[in-house]
């Protein structure tokens, strides 16, 4: 938070929120507390709280950021799992998931041990989950139940954890302390794309893209809102290691990934018979309703950026010596 450019970004968002708050108050004073305006006020207030929490995590350094995203993963996975009934046979599996697999994943990420970060969930956890569920002896809808847990862990934990990993991404000519701006850029552009698509969809939306999956998503909202978010992202190239042209391409990638991430998670949500993932954030639904667009945007941006700059995370962040010594001691070596 000592980076002047990061402070400019934060100040810009705060200024927008102040304007949004004033406009909302004026509209309510003029038209009264209609359902639409009450929802708008709830959304703006929720954005204030989310901005405060996000910036507080940045102020605490890498440890604060990884702790913040570990908590978000826990809350998101909890919403995902509790949205549908969980058979008794899966209870012990979920205990392992919440209190061992998830925390260890963020330990490996924060250490950082990049190799284990990559394979801990898609290899070790995905092998362990069906084994533990099979040992419970409940075979009814076994494949469906196991796949649901694995999908929740993949999206809510593994995909989301790529966002704090941006703090470790080696970029030539870019001080690693500046990587917080890259994280801010991803979150800002992706979330702005959601807001712009919602606004333009309400104003000009006529052609629904997938009405049975997400009735509010329209072709006009995606086109105009995505273009607006891409322009804003391009204008912020000075806070990134990208040229204006590359910043435009990366912003477009975030818009597309965010849109399809939200669409896929809406399809999952509808298949479970729910409108929202939860009620934890007034005006926004649950935590997962606010994070769904970031689930696809985070890992795609992380790996595309790493490929663009030719970084080798596995070489830069091999197993830390302290972790190597601890594992040898635990194994009796």
Automatic annotation (TrEMBL):
UniProt keyword Cell membrane present: no
Membrane topology note: Multi-pass membrane protein
Transmembrane portions of the chain: 7-28, 48-72, 117-137, 149-170, 182-200, 221-239, 245-268
Record-listed E.C. numbers: 2.7.7.41
Pathway of action: Phospholipid metabolism; CDP-diacylglycerol biosynthesis; CDP-diacylglycerol from sn-glycerol 3-phosphate: step 3/3
Family under the similarity heading: Belongs to the CDS family.
The name this protein goes by in its record: Phosphatidate cytidylyltransferase
Taxonomic lineage of the native organism: Bacteria, Pseudomonadati, Verrucomicrobiota, Verrucomicrobiia, Verrucomicrobiales
